[in-house]
């Protein structure tokens, strides 16, 4: 069992760094509501089962502890591979792949790579997206190749696959590794007209300005003629659930033709 006071600060940091954009963050919510899945239990609080809603932080700070039920704790200690299976399942079901390594580092956990059992990704998705964008990053135009192999250009989901995002062009962008990570991390998004938005929260020096900040207000590259770009519903999902706005001040659009909404 671990006291709420011991994990409160770290949990809030995780919510800020990896959770949806919010005006305020509440580490007491997951600590309290995780018990509803049957794999988390609380001690040190009277009438836990009868309490409606969520308790305040001050209540949880008064000696409340949380942890796995004894039978689950025993299973994890007896077979440590279950920890990797459970962690991998949580990552695959709730986070974009570009964030998995950062999340593991943030919580101090090393797990085996690979997808957990469950729905499978379309193996043709990456090739379809890269062909549509002619093996070029839609944000910066990077198109590096190592002999005949595209190097560092990836197929990115707009609405995360973990949240029902489809493996098709209406939910995809070809992005270099840097801009894929920035997109999934909420530093960059696209408006419904295909112009790039950079959050006011992002900062950096001269190189960062050239690579990220100068993209703001410019139009992302469209896929080949006749092929769909990201749909408005998928872009709006990214704005609401991933992009850590507000965006910087508006700038004149430059570059290629904007997406149709």
Q: What's the layout of helices and strands?
A:
Layout lengths: L1 E2 H15 L9 H6 L7 E3 L13 H4 L4 E3 L2 H9 L2 H14 L5 H8 L17 H8 L12 E2 L2 E2 L2 E5 L14 E5 H8 L3 E3 L5 E3 L7 H6 L20 H10 L20
Antiparallel strand pairs: 1-3, 2-3, 4-5, 6-7, 8-9
How would you describe this protein?
There is one protein chain. With 261 residues, the protein is of the alpha+beta class. The chain contains 10 helices and 9 strands. It has helices at 4-18, 28-33, 57-60, 70-78, 81-94, 100-107, 125-132, 177-184, 206-211, 232-241; strands at residues 2-3, 41-43, 65-67, 145-146, 149-150, 153-157, 172-176, 188-190, 196-198. The strands form 4 sheets. Strands 1-3-2 form a 3-stranded antiparallel β-sheet. It has a two-stranded antiparallel sheet with strand order 4-5. A two-stranded antiparallel sheet has the order 6-7. It is globular.
Structural class: alpha+beta
Uncertain stretches of 5 or more adjacent residues: 252-261
Helix share, percent: 25-40%
Globally, the shape reads: globular
| Whole-angstrom Rg | 21 Å
Distance between the termini: 50 Å
Secondary-structure element order, N to C: EHHEHEHHHHEEEEHEEHH
Count of helices?
A: 10
Strand content: 5-15%
Strand order of the largest sheet: 1-3-2
The average pLDDT value, as a whole number, equals 87
């Amino acid at each position: 069992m671990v006291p709420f006071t011991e994990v409160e600060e770290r949990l809030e940091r995780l919510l800020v760094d990896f959770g949806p954009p919010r005006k305020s963050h509440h580490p007491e919510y997951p600590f309290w509501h995780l018990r509803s899945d049957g794999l988390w239990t609380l001690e040190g609080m009277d009438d836990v089962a009868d309490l409606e809603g969520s308790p305040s932080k001050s209540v949880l700070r008064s000696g409340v502890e949380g942890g796995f039920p004894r039978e689950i704790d025993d299973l994890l200690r007896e077979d440590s591979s279950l920890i990797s299976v459970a962690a991998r399942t949580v990552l695959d079901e709730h986070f974009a792949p570009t964030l998995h390594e950062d999340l593991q580092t943030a919580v101090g956990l090393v797990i085996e790579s690979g997808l957990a059992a469950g729905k499978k990704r379309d193996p043709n998705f990456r090739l379809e997206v890269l062909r549509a964008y002619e093996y070029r990053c839609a944000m910066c135009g990077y198109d590096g190749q190592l002999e005949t192999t595209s190097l560092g250009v990836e197929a990115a989901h707009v609405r995360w696959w973990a949240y029902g995002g489809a493996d098709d062009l209406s939910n995809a962008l070809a992005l270099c590794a840097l801009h894929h990570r920035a997109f999934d991390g909420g530093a960059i998004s696209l408006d419904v007209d295909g112009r790039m938005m950079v959050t006011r929260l992002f900062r950096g020096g001269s190189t960062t300005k050239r690579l990220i900040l100068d993209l703001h207000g410019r139009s992302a590259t469209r896929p080949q003629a006749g092929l769909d770009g990201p749909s408005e519903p998928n872009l709006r999902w990214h704005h609401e659930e991933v992009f850590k706005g507000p965006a910087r001040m508006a700038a004149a659009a430059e570059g290629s033709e904007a997406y149709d909404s």
